[in-house]
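Complex record, two chains
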Amino acid sequence: MDNLKKVIDSTLRVHPSGSMADMLLTETLRKHGIQESSLKNLSSDQKKRINQVVSNIQAELGKILG
Amino acid sequence: MSRRNWNALNASCSHPSFRDPEVEQTAKQKSKTSQYSEELIYIIDSADVEVTTTETQVALSIQAALQAAIAIIVNISIADSQKADQVAQELFQNASVRQTNRQKTFIKNSRGVRVTTTDTDIAVNIQVLIQVLLALLVKVDLL
């Protein structure tokens, strides 16, 4: 389990800008005609819900990895 | 009416799978569902053996949780739910390593052995999904 923890910790420390995942996401959004600018203008309610999802996944990872 | 067959020696003849988008989609969907991991450890006539292994089920749980989080965030962020589903599906298809992993560890007639194994495929999948999740949070201005 220690190896998995190391993989997750090291991945969380890297800023995603310019990464392959970032490019994949950019290309996928472009392909489906979604303007990235539209994602920057989410309502406060949408942002609140996303923050809740992030909190949940962080808690779940913490629980699983001990 | 006879159908012209594909000919590997004819350079002007494109392979049918490159022309038919449905074929490509089918292949992607198959790769998505072929996740399989198996780990077998045999310890025979040995003493003082320590085997540490990454628990595959735990790793799969993390993978599923990350996929669910990405799908929810994509659905919250993109108003058109059909497009949101397509984006999420495509992200998972492209961000997942095809997993057919078999690990067998044999320890026989040994003493004082320490073995550590990791299901690398799943670890890589988790790594990529975390990167996608972080990239998504940057796109929605939350990181």
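Note: Chain A has a mean pLDDT of 88.
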